[in-house]
């Protein structure tokens, strides 16, 4: 199969996208953010597949694989917002919400169905003619208006997602017992990349329409090259830091980095890490009991800014020893340990039928900085949100 140089680049990005989709889907459970991100990458993978086919003779063999996602920007925006919403601790979108957000895409899709049903020979002839006459020209006004509406639609979703991320970032700044800050930074980078992708297309398109600086084919090629680079960056970053893209922070099975800004070492390969430690098992068990005693009896976890340094100073034990005991003896991480106590405290407050505290107050009273972090930790521990827990408790009484 003959293929152009851009087609080879699209093929490389397509392979990366397929790998990333497989990892995201297999490592995530239904409803988790990883599944939504897999859907986003899958949409990009399809556009890359189109690029490969149209930049080779592949379209002659597989013409019916092309043009199934007209107005792809109408999908990218809602899917990305759904991903940000779940990563921020929001509830899963219902089928009705997905249909509502996807309605513009469905309208454009059904508008183009007649073209999808053309015979293969006619499609091949159409794509061949298009390639032989790729100089382009000025698009009719109605199509320009449609493209502008599509780009404005995507822009509104990206802006909404950015505002939500900015709010979460403010709340995560002071959170020292989980990796919310790193997760938000990843999402903001992805949002900026998507904004850059669409801004790049708009600039090229306007330059072509108003000044004839490029052909329409070149606009599409440059845009797809930008998307290829975006997919490669996502794969490089995401496969190296899966804990930042698969699930919301505070998950108990979260494979966090080796260290965090609060200084704690996380329990990855703890046996190898502490192989040469002089801390004997009996002493480690005594330290573990002292850690639990201080947290339970003195309720240190109620301090929202509690970090490893403060805990080690309170115990009078060197920080690296406290970290070792938490990782190796207690088989957990610092943030998971602290948030576990906070969740139990919150459950006790919800169970107390003599009071009717709001969930926001329960979050603060339990040591969380905000409702978002509270929801994430509660879901990771109990499998559902605190609001669902409270509702089930009331129904059982």
From TrEMBL:
HTH araC/xylS-type domain span: 285-392
Keywords: DNA-binding, Membrane, Transcription, Transcription regulation, Transmembrane, Transmembrane helix
SUPFAM superfamilies for the chain: Homeodomain-like
Record field: transmembrane: 6-25, 37-56, 68-86, 98-119, 139-160, 190-210, 222-239
Classification via PROSITE patterns: HTH_ARAC_FAMILY_1, HTH_ARAC_FAMILY_2
InterPro entries: Homeodomain-like_sf, HTH_AraC, HTH_AraC-typ_CS
Protein name as annotated: Helix-turn-helix domain-containing protein
Lineage start: Bacteria, Pseudomonadati, Pseudomonadota, Gammaproteobacteria, Lysobacterales
């Amino acid at each position: 199969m003959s293929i152009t140089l851009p087609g080879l680049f699209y093929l490389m990005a397509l392979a990366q996208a397929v790998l990333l989709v497989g990892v995201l889907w297999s490592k995530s459970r239904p409803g988790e953010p990883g599944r939504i991100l897999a859907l986003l990458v899958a949409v990009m993978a399809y556009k890359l597949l189109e690029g490969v086919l149209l930049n080779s003779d592949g379209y002659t063999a597989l013409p019916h694989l092309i043009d199934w996602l007209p107005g792809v920007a109408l999908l990218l925006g809602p899917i990305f917002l759904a991903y940000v919403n779940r990563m921020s601790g929001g509830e899963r979108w219902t089928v009705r919400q997905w249909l509502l957000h996807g309605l513009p895409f469905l309208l454009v899709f059904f508008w183009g169905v007649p073209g999808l049903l053309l015979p293969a020979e006619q499609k091949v002839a159409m794509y061949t003619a298009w390639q032989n006459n790729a100089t382009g020209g000025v698009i009719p006004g109605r199509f320009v208006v449609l493209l502008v509406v599509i780009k404005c639609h995507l822009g509104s979703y990206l802006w909404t997602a950015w505002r939500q991320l900015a709010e979460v970032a403010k709340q995560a700044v002071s959170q020292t017992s989980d990796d919310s800050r790193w997760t938000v930074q990843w999402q903001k980078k992805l949002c900026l990349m998507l904004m850059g992708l669409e801004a790049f297309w708009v600039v090229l398109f306007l330059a072509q329409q108003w000044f004839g600086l490029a052909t329409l084919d070149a606009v599409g090629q440059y845009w797809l090259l930008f998307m290829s680079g975006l997919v490669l960056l996502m794969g490089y970053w995401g496969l190296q830091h899966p804990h930042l893209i698969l699930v919301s922070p505070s998950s108990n099975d979260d494979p966090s980095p080796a260290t965090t800004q609060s200084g704690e070492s996380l329990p990855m390969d703890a046996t190898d890490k502490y192989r040469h430690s002089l801390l004997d098992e009996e002493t480690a068990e005594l330290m573990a009991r002292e850690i639990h005693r201080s947290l339970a009896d003195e309720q240190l976890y109620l301090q929202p800014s509690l970090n490893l340094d403060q805990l080690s100073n309170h115990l009078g034990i060197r920080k690296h020893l406290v970290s070792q005991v938490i990782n190796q003896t207690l088989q957990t991480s610092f943030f998971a340990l602290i948030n576990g106590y906070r969740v139990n405290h919150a459950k006790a407050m919800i169970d107390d039928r003599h009071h009717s505290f709001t969930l926001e107050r329960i979050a603060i009273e339990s040591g969380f900085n905000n409702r978002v972090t509270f929801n994430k930790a509660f879901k990771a521990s109990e499998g559902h949100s605190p609001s669902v827990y409270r509702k089930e408790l009331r129904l059982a009484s």
